[in-house]
Amino acid sequence: MTIRIGIVGLGEAGSAIAAGLQETGKAQVAGFDARLDVPAVRDRAAGTGIYLASSLADLAERSEVVLCLTHASTALAVAQAIAPHLQAGQVYSDWNSGGPQLKKDVAAVVTPSGAAFADGAVMAAVPGLRHQVPVLLSGGGAEQLVTATTGLGMELEVVGDEPGQASAVKMLRSLLVKGLEALILECLIAARRFGAEEKVLNSMGGSLPLHDWSQLASYLTTRTYLHGRRRAEEMGQVVATLREVDVDPIVATACERRLLWLADLQLGGADVPAPQGYADVITRVEEAS
């Protein structure tokens, strides 16, 4: 038995997923992209071997499951355009890199049609993994989507019942990843001006438990909890150091502000037991703020 899957957006990610699903032999895949008049887009889409729908209405009519992989900026408009063509029994899943509120807004547009909605958060680069890329799901249609696609080799994990829960994981993971990217960039720009790039990077070897991010989070947050003001003062000196070599301390200033914010909560003290991990730290922060 085959399942009919429609994919809106045949860019790099959408085309890779479409091709992977088509090659399983267990799915009839249709795709639609508003840019099919662009030769490069049409050639890539044609290379997937899937049916190219003439419109969103055509795509919806041919699909039991619809996956949207356009852009966060167009996710709501796509949902508004396709919703009149959806019906009960179908699942519409938005896999764009949008925040929780955007996914809730899309769900509010889709669900009156009778179709179920699933918030999808793509958690790895798509091209190499294609349809087997790990995706977190939440919302009323999440379990239905998993059931409908059983046997296709998709890596789908349901993390909640509400739209936005899956996307929240991705957005906050992005805060870690992109925050590190920005931090390392700022550090290395300044290090170059002191001729200290390799020394700085080599000095980090073995300093942090990077193999286990739960352990890393506990290590860093408990130390910050206990020594927040001293750490904030040190970051103030970092800000001054960057300015000495004409590097705008964008990230460093933000770090100083966050550490001062924590210190001003005055959570520590000689009579207060030390926190037992990141969860304990965050609980105390929430109670105090």
Unreliably modeled segments: none
CATH architecture of the largest domain: 3-Layer(aba) Sandwich
What is the fourth-level CATH superfamily of the largest domain? NAD(P)-binding Rossmann-like Domain
Mean pLDDT: 93
Remind me, CATH topology of the largest domain?
Rossmann fold
Q: Can you count the beta strands?
A: 8
Which structural class do you get from the secondary structure elements?
alpha/beta
**Percent of residues in helical segments?**
40-55%
Inertia-based shape? elongated
Rg over alpha carbons: 24 Å
Tally of alpha and pi helices = 12
SSE string, helix = H, strand = E? EHEHEHEHEHEHEHEHHHHH
**Beta-strand share of residues:** 5-15%
Describe this structure in words.
The structure is a single chain. The protein has two domains: 3-168, NAD(P)-binding Rossmann-like Domain (Rossmann fold, 3-Layer(aba) Sandwich); 208-288, N-(1-d-carboxylethyl)-l-norvaline Dehydrogenase, domain 2, CATH 1.10.1040. Helix content is 53%, strand content 14%. The chain is built from twelve helices and eight strands. An eight-stranded mixed β-sheet has the order 3-2-1-4-5-6-7-8, sandwiched between helices. Helix 4 packs parallel to helix 5 and helix 10 crosses helix 11.
